[in-house]
Amino acid sequence: MQWSDQAIIIGVKRHGEASVIAEVMTRAHGRHLGLVRGGRSRTMQPVLQPGNEVEVTWRARLDEHLGEFRIEPVHLRAARLMEAATSVYGVQAMGALLRLLPERDPHPHLYEALDVILENLHDPRDAGELFVRFEIAVLNDLGFGLDLAECVATGARADLAYVSPKSGRAVSREAGAPYADKMLVLPAFLVEGGAADYDSLLAAFRMTAFFLHRHVYEPRGLAVSTARDGFVQAALKALKPQDAITHP
Predict the structure, then answer these.
(1) Which of 61, 171, 195, 227 is the most exposed place for a label (fewest CB within 10 A)?
(2) Rounded CA gap, 212 and 229, in Å?
C-alpha cells in the first residue's frame, strides 16, 4: 500500500541507532505515524522538526502496519518557531491537541487551520485568538462542539454574554443574568469578531479549558499539556505585560 500527501511534522521519536518514528498531521490521512530510516542523519534532522511542512510518501505491506515514510521538505519554519515563546509552546500545544484525535482519522480543516496558525504564532495577539479557535475546532471534531450562535434559552442572536457549562451553548445577557455566577463568560470576539483584548482572551482560554477538561482530559485520565500553560502565559503577557497573569 502507498499514498503521498502534504503533512506537518508534530513529533519525532528515536527508533534504533539511525532511524526515527515521525508523527505528522496530513491533509487527507489525518494524524499518522511512520518510520523514517536515517531520520537521525544531519540531513534529515533539520527537516524532522515540529512545525515544518513536508511531502510524505507512506508505504506498508498492510494498512494496519506502521509503515515507512519518505519525506521531502517543503517549508522549513522550525527555526523561526523558536524565536518567540508563543511559537515554542504553541507548536507543542497544538500537537498535544491533535493527539486527542484518533490516529489516521482525516481532519482536513484542522490541517488547514494548523498551517495558518503556524504562520502566525510569532505574533502573540493573533496567536492567542487563533489557538482558542483551534481548541474549539478540536472539541467539535471530538463530538463536543460549542454552539455560540444563539441563546439556548430565548433563541436571540444579539447580546450573547455567557456560555452554559452544562450544554456548551450561548446564553444572552438578560437570560443569563440571574445565573451569572454559574456561567462561563462568552468572549465577544468569538461572536462579534474584532480583536481580542486581555480580558476576553483570558475568558476564552478558561472556557475552552473547562470543556476540554470535562469532556476529554478527565474522562480519559489525561493531564493538560504543560505546553498549553506556557502558551497561555506568553499570549496573555503580550496583551497585559505589566500585570500578574492568571492561569485559566
Answers:
(1) 61
(2) 14
pTM metric for this prediction: 0.93
Contacts of 244 (CB under 8 A, 6+ apart): none
Residue 23 to residue 226: CA distance in whole angstroms: 19
**pLDDT band for position 240 (cuts 50, 70, 90):** confident
Residue at 25 is within a domain: yes
Domain count, the chain: 2
Indicate which CATH number applies to the domain containing 39: 2.40.50.140
Report DSSP letters for the chain, one per residue. -EEEEEEEEEEEEEETTTEEEEEEEESSS-EEEEEETTTTSTTTTTTSSTT-EEEEEEE-SSTTS--EEEEEEEE--HHHHTSSHHHHHHHHHHHHHHTTSPTT---HHHHHHHHHHHTTTTSHHHHHHHHHHHHHHHHHHTT---B-SS-TTT---SSEEEE-TTT-BEEEHHHHGGGGGGSEE--HHHHH-S---HHHHHHHHHHHHHHHIIIIIHHHT-PPPHHHHHHHHHHHHHHSTTSPPPP-
Q: Are residues 65 and 92 in the same domain?
A: no
Compute the average pLDDT of residues 52-77. 96
Q: pLDDT tens, 202-229? A: 999 999 999 999 999 999 999 999 999 9
